[in-house]
Amino acid sequence: MRMKTLVVEDNENNMYLIGYILKKHGHEVIEAVSGEEGVELALKGRLDLILMDLQLPGIDGLEATKRIRASEANDEIPIIALTSYAMTGDRERALKAGCTGYIEKPIDPETFMASIEGYL
Amino acid sequence: MSGVLIISIVIRLIVLGWSIGLIRQLRDWRMAFLSGILALMALRQILTTISERESWAIVFHWHVEELPGLVVSILAFLAVFYFKDMITEHDQAVAERHKSEIRMASILGIAADAIITIDKDQHILQFNQGAEQIFGYHAEEVLGQPLDLLLPSRFVKAHQQHIRTFATSPKSTRRMGELSQEIFGRHKDGSEFPADASISKLTMDSQIAFTVILRDITDRVRLHDAIKKSEKHLRNVLDGLGPHMLVGLMTPEGTLIEANRPALEIAGLKPEDVSGKPFEETYWWSYSESVKQQLRDTIRRAARGETCRYDVVVRVGEGRFITIDFCLQPLLDEAGNVFYLIPSAVDITERKRAEDHIQHLRSVLEAIRNVNQLIVHEKNQQKLLQGACDIINQTRQYKLVWIGMLQEGAKEVLPAAQAGFEDGYLKSVKITMDDSETGKGPTGTAIKTKMPFVLRDIASDSQYKPWREQALKRGYASSASVPLVHENRVFGALNVYSTIPDAFDEEEVNLLVEVSQDIGFALHSIELEEKHKCAEEALHKAHEELEAKVMERTNELAQANIRLQELDQLKSMFIASMSHELRTPLNSIIGFSSIILQGMTGEITEEQRKQLTIVKRSANHLLDLINDIIDVSKIEAAEVELAIERFDLPSLAREVEESFTFATQEHGLALSLTTPKRLTIESDKRRTKQILINLVSNAVKFTDQGKIEIKVVRRGDVAEITVRDTGIGVREEDMGYLFEAFSRIRTEGRIREGSGLGLYLSRKIAVLLGGGISVESEFSKGSMFIFTLSLRRREE
Fold first, then answer.
1. Beta carbons of B579 and A84 less than 8 Å apart
2. Given an 8 Å threshold on Cβ–Cβ distance, is A17 in contact with B598?
């Protein structure tokens, strides 16, 4: 099934890698490079999946997730956080903010899709 | 008729009348004759006178021829006077003799004593009633018989000889038995009896006769024996009363009859030294006139029937005296008259000594108590020392008490207080602490040695030489010096002087030591208080300074703390940013090399695949290193978060096993997993997996050939995961380093990649999860790591 996926990621290389993998697996990718943009895009169109980097310029991924979750239309959309292993409490905070699950960066292309599907 | 004639006639008539009276009274013919002549002479004279009829006028005329008549008359008067006395005396003597004869005869007749008269041949002439009673013979039976009849036959011969000897001796009377001591008589029935007899001799009609007077003394002898026996008994009793019971016997007049053995022995006397002497003149009382006088008074009182008793000291040797409890008791006869006095005494010297000792102890306690009271309230050093001197002097009554204080620099001792008779003595005293003569006296010695020093005799002791003259002048005979010490520090010395030589015995010195210790303590306290005051001021100052310093330091610390906090933040920021910044490029490296290796971007050659695999593995290794470092920093900061959830341990083990399938195959190792079907545990799944991966990857890393076995078992409340390999093993000496951070075990052969943090972290985390990791290994044979995990994670 082709998923319309919003990837909120400020790092150009990561965005390219994630987009590449998703596209290779036949999914549609919408890119946002900041939290504000991500929220705007999430509220705008119908999406199947959001991959949210937590460390973002401007409002961070947690705040963005909360805002997205705040709209009725998006209260059930899967939001998977891309967390950093180093940041203490990232995962808990992510789940608390409304994320469906989390995938630790750096991502492993081999297991990446399987991990996503595990949360859907 | 002349006056002379008339006077003659009157005298003659008086003599005549007197003579007639005497004749009637004395009936003496001589007197009658004389009186008759006188009467005739007077008659003739009267007749002559009447016949002459002379006028009365011539009465006053002298006629010389009449004078002889007057003289004859006077002589006649005197003769009658003389005869009267003579005749009276003679008559009295005759009458006396007559009476005496009568008495004698009756005595002879009825006397209880035997009176026996014998002739020179010792035949019995007379045998009175007494003799009859004593000997049991009638007079008729023995008269004319030999005296031997009355004697025991064994004495007969000697007796006859004695009488013969006596007959020729000049003595007229002799006690019989004088030579043989005892004489015996013989009753008619032949029995003998002891007798007391004397013999006298008289010559009658030129014949010598003997009178024997004899008395039966059987009763007396018996009584005498009884008395002797009882006397001996009494003596034994008196002597045996014990060495302290001194008893004697004396007359009411004060003459000592005897004293018992203990009384004599105690003074080394013999019975003859005292017997028969006035009691107060005996040795015991010979040392004091007042004691003798007291005894004389006592004897007088006792002689009146009073029992007297008092304690007194008596002499028992040269310079030796004992104290006795003396009692003088009168002994009364039935009529209540004193006939003996019994002096008795008990030696109470020991008791007296004990009493004195108690008295001594009392005064000891009193002195200590008084000094202690003084110490409690007196905080002035001078007043304290003076008070102590006064108390000791009063209580013990010494001649002089003074306290010398060791001066600053410890070079000399100066008097600080004194009590008693001093008279400028202390001014003359110089005491130094050096080795000269003035430093070797009792005070100096006591201070130097910290021990009491007793000077028994000031007059003779050489150590006292520098002060002797002055001391003797004031009557000090002995002294004691006791150091005032507290906790090994000497303040000075207490010095005490007595007028008696050797007045300080051990007990006394002990008292002084005790008092001195108390004074030493007081001096210490006073000094301490003064020091304390100074110290308090210094302390106050120091305290202020310190407070200022503390403030300064606190400020510095506060700043340092702020800096530290900043640094800590910096560190956290560093780790966070390192993590992020290091991972971001790794994201791309791992991600893209992985994509290419997967063939998403198209076919690649084997060479490219091989090189890209190295790139990817190196990137992963770098990622592991970063992750380990982050874990260590979290563990050390106690910031590890655990995400506890329920999961199936066998599934997790399978996941791990699968992830290593490729790597083991690559190394040609067999990998096996034994596990129960299901084992749900409550723990941190990700951390559990991390530990298991670390253990398996280590096994793979260090095993060149053989197999790796993973085994999951449940043991009670614990899940046990064992990872066993046939690898290189661990040397015994390396076992201790295995779980330490950054420790890399020496290995041979290929290079083993790793951060050196894997096992360190695994064990730390295992402990956090309520379990642990242990290891068993044999070098070059293989290792077995046992990872235990609590099934239920206990809430903290």
1. yes
2. no
Q: Does the beta-carbon distance from B587 to A105 stay under 8 Å?
A: yes
Contact assignment for A109 to B591 by CB distance below 8 Å: yes
Q: Which of B576, B591, B630 sits opposite A107 (nearest CB)?
A: B591
pLDDT one-digit tens code per residue, B570-625:
776 777 667 767 777 888 888 889 889 888 888 899 999 999 988 988 888 888 88
Q: Give percent helix, percent strand, percent coil of chain A, each to the nearest 5.
A: 45, 20, 30
Angle between helical axes of A61-70 and A35-44 (0-180°, round to 10): 20
Q: Three-state secondary structure along A72-103?
A: HHHCCCCEEEEEECCCCCHHHHHHHHCCCEEE
Query: What is the chain B residue with the closest CA to A92?
Result: B643
Q: Decide: helix, strand or coil at residue B61.
A: coil
The minimal CB distance from A86 to the residues B592, B630, B643 is found for B630
Nearest in space to B601 (alpha carbons), one of B613, B610, B592, B590: B592
**Interface contact B634, partner A, CB < 8 A:** yes
- CB distance B587–A11 less than 8 Å? yes
- B107-140: buried (b, 16+ CB within 10 Å) or exposed (e) per residue? ebeebebbbbbbeeebebebbbebbbebbebeee
Report residue B201: phi and psi, to 5°: -115, 150
Say whether residue A55 is in contact with chain B using an 8 A CB cutoff: yes
Angle, helices B606-636/B758-768, rounded to nearest 10 degrees: 50
For the segment B41-73, what is each residue's pLDDT rounded down to a tens digit? 777 777 776 676 555 555 566 667 777 777 877
Q: Tell me, yes or no, if the pTM score tops 0.95.
A: no
Contact B347, B266 (CB under 8 A): yes
Taking contacts as CB-CB distances below 8 angstroms, the residues of chain A near B584 are: 11, 13-14, 106
Q: What is d(CA A110, CA B598) in angstroms, rounded to the nearest whole number?
A: 8
Ramachandran assignment for B660, one of left (phi > 0), alpha (psi -120 to 50 degrees), beta (any other): alpha
Between CA B270 and CA B278, with CA B272 as vertex, the angle to 5 degrees is 110
CB-CB: which of B600, B627, B641 is closest to A88? B641
Of the candidates A86, A108, A109, which has its C-beta nearest B580's C-beta? A86
B308: which strand partners?
B328
CA separation (Å) from B236 to B224, B231, B241, B277, B628? 18, 8, 8, 22, 118
Q: Which of residues 554-583 of B touch A (CB under 8 A)?
A: 575-576, 578-580, 583
Q: Which residues contact B335 (CB under 8 A, 6 or more apart)?
A: none
Q: What is the ipTM of this complex?
A: 0.82
Judge contact between A81 and A60, C-beta under 8 A.
Answer: no
Question: Both tokens of residue B212?
Answer: 């024997």
Provide the residue-wise pLDDT of chain A in tens; the chain has 120 residues: 889 999 999 888 889 999 999 998 999 999 999 999 999 999 887 889 999 998 888 888 889 999 998 887 777 889 999 877 656 667 778 888 889 988 888 888 888 889 899 888
Q: What is the chain A residue with the closest CA to B602?
A: A24
Of B584, B592, B630, the CB nearest to A11: B584
For residue A34, give how far its alpha carbon lies from the nearest alpha carbon of chain B (Å): 17
Nearest CA in chain B to A54: B580
Q: pLDDT tens digits, residue range B278-332?
A: 998 999 988 888 889 999 999 999 999 899 999 998 988 887 888 889 999 998 8
